[in-house]
Amino acid sequence: DSGVTQTPKHLITATGQRVTLRCSPRSGDLSVYWYQQSLDQGLQFLIQYYNGEERAKGNILERFSAQQFPDLHSELNLSSLELGDSALYFCASSVTGGADTEAFFGQGTRLTVV
Amino acid sequence: GENVEQHPSTLSVQEGDSAVIKCTYSDSASNYFPWYKQELGKRPQLIIDIRSNVGEKKDQRIAVTLNKTAKHFSLHITETQPEDSAVYFCAASSGTGFQKLVFGTGTRLLVSP
């Protein structure tokens, strides 16, 4: 157990819908990251937050948004869902969020869009 | 941006043999290189990492080497066991004050008893 908690574990929804994925970082970690893992794209960095502020952005679609709250948990919002958004979404956390800090992954949320 | 290539895509070894997975990166500013192990349907698990000021790091049966000049790094697993079977990902990260891990495409390691 990495100490990073993600909910829900599984999510099935229809095209065009909106979902929210939730992440609680390890105790003491100030930075959270979101990654998407799909069969054709592999593991892709989406976005990073540090202590409530956006720190770095990757290939995150405009239909996707995220935030980190004062209690340091984070949410990833996915809207106007398409079949191609079906993937495993991982949250990770680290203490400082610097380039060379260890990041620990949660168990992921498997999103299926039908 | 950073690009990480990983080889081989699959690797089959007999129990007790050694396994080597190689990665190359493109961004000379990258300074952190973690390796993750992922079992089917589970989270990527950090198994070892190396920073750019170090050439080699070892942790029991696992070692990682880094050649900054050639921009490549490798994972070495000795005395492989069936429980080492999984997909292994290398990654590279650069930047100051933030981390964008760029992952390789993964190596499926199968250790046969």
Descriptive overview:
- The complex is a heterodimer of chains A (114) and B (113).
- Chain A has 114 residues and is mainly beta.
- Chain A contains no helices and eleven strands.
- In chain A, the strands form two sheets. In chain A, strands 2, 4, 5, 6, 9, 10 and 11 form a seven-stranded mixed β-sheet that branches. A four-stranded antiparallel β-sheet of chain A has the order 1-3-8-7, with no helix packed on it.
- Chain A is globular.
- The mean pLDDT of chain A is 94.
- Chain B is mainly beta and 113 residues long.
- In chain B, 0% of the residues lie in helices and 54% in strands.
- In chain B, strands 2, 4, 5, 9, 10 and 11 form a six-stranded mixed β-sheet that branches. Chain B has a five-stranded antiparallel β-sheet with strand order 1-3-8-7-6, with no helix packed on it.
- In chain B, a hairpin with a 2-residue loop joins β6 and β7.
- Chain B is globular and about 45 Å long.
- The model of chain B has no long low-confidence stretch (mean pLDDT 94).
- Classes of the chains: A mainly beta (114), B mainly beta (113).
Concise synopsis of the structure shown:
The complex is a heterodimer of chains A (114) and B (113). Chain A has 114 residues and is mainly β.
Defining traits:
heterodimer; A: 114 residues; mainly beta; 11 strands; 0% helix; globular; B: 113 residues; 6-stranded mixed beta sheet
Structural class of chain B: mainly beta
Tell me the distance between the termini of chain B.
41 Å
Order of helices and strands of chain A: EEEEEEEEEEE
Approximately how much beta-strand content do the residues of chain B carry? over 45%
| Fraction of residues in β-strands of chain A | over 45%
Span of the ends, CA to CA of chain A: 31 Å
Which descriptor suits the 3D outline of chain B?
Answer: globular
